[in-house]
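ugh ok fine here u go
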Amino acid sequence: MSPRRRPKAYSHRGFSPDGEENTMAAFRAAVELDFTHLETDVRTTADGHLVVFHDETLDRLTGATGRIGDRTLAELAAVRVAGEPIPTFEELVTAWPHVELNVDLKDEPAVQALADAVIRHGAHGRVVAASFSDRRRRALQRELERRGSPRVRATAGMALVAAFTLLGKLSRGGFQPWRLLRPFLRRVFALQVPIRQGPLTVVEPGFLARAHEAGLEVHVWVVDDAPTMHRLLDLGVDGIMTDRADVLVGVYRERGVWPPG
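structure:
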């Protein structure tokens, strides 16, 4: 079976059916299901530490309030997400050396802090830079290069994905304006996209064909039901990101592609 037909499986913020997203317990639950690709988010504390947390504020997930960036690491030590502490990126990157981490940089200081961590742990092959912000992704690569370090793989940000999608919709016959983006697409290895964005269908056969022509993988987020997972795999997507790791495992096993390559 070719690599393209043996798709990747991403556990979105770990596997957290009880609400402990982005905690070591959630990531451990995914790893115990044999996931080798974890999606996560990082933010920077007031004293420069990189922590694993999605939201800008503590309000939704914890009993505390206020911005992550206004708290020190010591101040966050007592904060709990469904009974679990907020992990540092150091804890996550060292916990499972065989696991790839798809890391969404949620703030500007995270660029420097993530570059530090990647270099310190030699994690260039295991960390993927993912951000809605193309600027942050480019800044991370420049920072690694400035320090004489190899780049990490990266996914396209929101602006590049939007341009690729919209120009693709305009493509007809010999008129293929999306190809003007090729210099920018060469800097990334994948497009991580939703099935739809508002009224616009993103993931459809033409989108996949153009992405694969450009040498890009297509990973779809966040998909939690088995019928949709099967439909996407039939279309030829290269990976699925899910909050329901257990459902995705069942689908991949049914198709004979678990564990994924």
